[in-house]
Specification:
Elements: H1 5-18, H2 36-44, E1 58-64, H3 68-71, E2 79-81, E3 87-89, E4 98-99, E5 105-108, E6 112-115, H4 121-132, E7 140-145, E8 149-154, E9 160-163, H5 171-177, E10 190-196, E11 199-205, E12 225-228, H6 232-270
Subcellular location: Cell outer membrane
InterPro entries: Poly_export (IPR049712), Poly_export_N (IPR003715), SLBB_dom (IPR054765)
Pfam family, one: Poly_export
């Protein structure tokens, strides 16, 4: 009787899976012709999701101008690391970076400590350009946030931390970076964890619902964590496999005990 349990279970799971609604698998189910007004509104609201500079950010800041010599005082010297003990300042090599401290400030050449936390990258560029323009004609400031990343975990094909290389990455772009959600992933209840205003907020996202395009979490932010939980079929199979391993362990232990007892009985019976 026991030998029929596994085939029956597998057939049951497969039958249940085959009856699963495609609405749980297909993205944006029910989204007909795109509403041009809605799309226009989304494009206009993009600016709200530009990342802000925060404490502990690592920044590269490069100042340039037509006359390169005039901006030299506003650029950190590049370094060339020959070995672990020797560091030479040279004209070319690895660029030094700025770390935003706990007060939201950096120490910038000539001007000293400047508070730039809370600014967007573009706003910080304009701020520094305004300061430097007192000494240089038409300076250009380029800022990049080097440690921007997001983490994607769970039922995706390539989980892990992904660099955030653009300012307006959507949650769909983020999932694409992780190789898409696997067939065992639950697309109707994706969890996004985001730190906002000193506290951690949790958002549940249904990727099968076209309303996602109008949600504030459509654009991901740096340090967001996205978790795709397994669907019910995957959870049931995991529970079954766990129970199966437990049963095998119990049976193995029991057989070992019986074998030892039988050996002892045989040994005493030969005396």
């Amino acid at each position: 009787m026991a030998r029929f349990i596994l085939p029956i279970f597998i057939i049951t799971v497969l039958a249940f899976s085959s009856c699963k609604s495609t609405k749980d698998i297909i993205y944006f189910e029910g989204y007909g012709n795109a509403d041009s007004l809605l799309v226009t509104e989304i494009l206009q609201d993009k600016s709200e999701y530009a990342p802000l500079i925060e404490p502990d950010d690592e920044l590269s800041i490069i100042v340039s101008a037509e006359n390169v010599a005039t901006v030299a005082p506003f650029n950190l010297p590049a370094i060339n690391v020959k070995d672990a003990q020797t560091v030479d300042l040279v004209a070319s090599g690895q660029l030094q970076t700025y770390i935003v401290d706990g007060d939201g400030e950096i120490t910038f050449p000539v001007f000293g400590r400047l508070k730039i936390a809370g600014m967007t990258r573009k706003a910080a560029e304009n701020y520094l350009q305004g300061l430097i323009s007192q000494y240089v004609i038409n300076p250009i400031v380029t800022i990049n946030i080097l440690n921007s990343k997001i983490s994607i975990l769970g039922e995706v094909n390539a989980p892990g931390s992904k660099p955030l290389n653009c300012e307006r990455l959507t949650i769909l772009d983020a999932i694409a970076l992780a190789g898409d959600i696997s067939i065992q992933g639950n697309r109707t209840n994706v969890l996004l964890i985001r730190e906002e205003g000193g506290k951690r907020n949790f958002y549940r996202i249904d990727l099968t619902n076209p309303d996602i395009f109008t949600k504030p979490y459509y654009y991901v932010k740096k340090n967001d964590v996205i978790y795709v939980e397994p669907n019910k079929e995957r959870q049931q199979m995991a529970r079954y496999n766990s129970q199966k391993q437990t049963n095998i362990s119990i049976i193995s232990t029991t057989l070992s005990g019986i074998s030892i007892i039988s050996s002892l009985i045989m040994a005493f019976s030969l005396k």
